[in-house]
Amino acid sequence: MRSFNSEKMDIPIAAAGLVFAVLAFRWLTRRSSPRIPGPRAHPFVGHIFQVPKVKTWKYMERLWHEYGPIVKLTLAGDDLLILNDPADAEALLGRRSKIYSSRRPLVYAGKYMSGNMRLTLLPYGDNLKKQRAAFHGMLQPRAIGGYEDMQHDTSLQLLVNLYRTPQDFYTHFPRFPASLIFTMSFGQKMKEDNKDLAAVQGVLYDFVRDSNPGAHLVDTFPILDKLPDFLSPWRAEAKRKHEDTIGLYRRLALDVKKRMEKDPELECFTARLWEQQAKMNLTDDELYYVSGSAFAAGTDTSSITLLWFVFAMATNPETMKKAQREIDSFFDANTLPNFSKMQELRYCFALMKEVIRWSPIAPLSFPHYLDADDEYKGYHIKKGTTVISNLWNMHHTESEFPDSYTFNPDRFMDKKAGTGDVADRLGDDIYGFGFGRRACPGQHLAAKSTWIAVVRTLWAFDIVPEKDELGHPKFLDIDDCSNGLTSRPNPFPATFVPRSSAHIDTIMASYERI
Ligand code: HEM
């Protein structure tokens, strides 16, 4: 016979049993998300010691072949999602752009070095929308037509420089987009010895270096930002860089404002910003940053593309000759090419696409950052994940780009021609300008600027690799390039040989007129 006491004891035991049963049922029937494929991680540090800082995209190419289109890595607790298939990038960065359009908060480069005002590093939100809208005014397809005269003049200067000192081509090509965007931004021609250019290039150099993942310990371990100043000398350094940058941008923008007083018709990006400052709701500091950022974001990207173009021509002479035959059929030696035949020179346009495909300037694009938890293809993707669209792998997908390591513009000649202005279509069929709401706002400008530089250079010069003692062309290694957010070919030997004296006469006669 059971005692009263033992009956009393049964109640909590039964309750505990019930709770246990419910938990066990839940555990057994839980829908756990499958693990996102990727290499095994070390406890605590994750893959921090496996991801090389040098040519990271090569390592990621191996992961793609081993683990498939979606790969996850973990760096000291931070998840990194790598998208190798453009369809996944479109689905997430494109169609779910509301939550996939942020940038990872960077303490050094974002908070202190940019005062949280640099467009490329801004999180998704009102400030970003404001700055992108301001950019759009300058860079939308309709506005681009207004820059043709500047593009003609600056590309003519490029030809003259290549003729006078061909051995310095490695500095001439970057100078072309730099002087173009400088003139567009600040409404005055850039002198050859312009000190502001060197200063802006310094800002850019710092930005690329300091925003590179792993550049500063505080961005891997943000808790270090809690340390006082005397234990954090990096903070003063970052703040000093911010003061230098905004000081420079302020001076350039105020100079435009002063010139506007004398010349209310002054036509440039910064003048438009001053006129519309109130409408765009930009503070003075934001205006300085927007006005300076076009230069910073557009110069390096365009110049690296052009350096890869030179590299491609020096290593693919038959392709170069084919493009020259197309150009010659429209422009003889007495006629400097201009934009009038941009629609017709289809092979030259395909050649530019191929440059961007073959060697994308940012092989891993600019990483996006996820603002909320998400589910995709059964995987759980955590808020705060850094999302990389791996342009390198996308551009080397054999099913889409057969024989993908070969430089071959013909692969784009069979594609649908499309309608409307060809300049709006440089990004079609390739992925080199990114995805979703952070996609490059400068691609229409880049299309026309790089096109005129490419066509004029090939019209005027043969680009030939230097020869060794035996007269054989020197080997140029595509892997001999810089590492970081962007990747440019390291200086390489190539020669620019004028195609005829008539071409040079045409160049010099046109140059005298500007
Ligand atoms: C061939 C030349 C160029 C290439 C290949 C290129 C490529 C790219 C790529 C891959 C991105 C990152 C997109 C993403 O986050 O998904 C980007 C962003 C950007 N580009 Fe370009 N770009 C070029 C020229 C230009 C030019 C000429 C300008 C302006 C004058 C420009 C302004 C920008 C800006 C402001 C961003 C940041 C956008 C944001 O964070 O919201 N780019 N570009």
In words, what does this structure look like?
The protein is 51% helix and 7% strand. It has 514 residues and is an alpha+beta fold. A four-stranded mixed β-sheet has the order 1-2-6-3. Strands 4-5 form a two-stranded antiparallel sheet. It has a two-stranded antiparallel sheet with strand order 7-8. A hairpin with a 2-residue loop joins strand 4 and strand 5 (379-381). It is globular. The termini are far apart. It binds protoporphyrin IX containing FE (HEM). Protoporphyrin IX containing FE (HEM) binds next to helix 6, helix 15 and helix 19. InterPro entries: Cyt_P450, Cyt_P450_CS, Cyt_P450_E_grp-I, Cyt_P450_sf, Cytochrome_P450_fung. Its cofactor is heme. Belongs to the cytochrome P450 family.
Into which percent range does the helicity of residues fall?
Answer: 40-55%
The outline comes out as globular
> By helix and strand content, what is the structural category?
alpha+beta
Please describe the biggest sheet, giving its number of strands, its sense, and whether it closes into a barrel.
4 strands, mixed
Strand order, main sheet: write it out: 1-2-6-3
Spatial gap, N to C terminus:
114 Å
Low-confidence stretches: 1-9
**Count of helix runs:** 20
Strand-residue proportion: 5-15%
The ordered string of helix (H) and strand (E) elements is: HHEEHHHHHHHHHHHHHHHEEEEHHEEH
Output mean pLDDT. Answer: 90
Bound ligands: protoporphyrin IX containing FE
Overall strand count = 8
Radius of gyration: 27 Å
Pathway: Secondary metabolite biosynthesis
Family: Belongs to the cytochrome P450 family.
Cofactor: heme
GO molecular function: heme binding; iron ion binding; monooxygenase activity; oxidoreductase activity, acting on paired donors, with incorporation or reduction of molecular oxygen
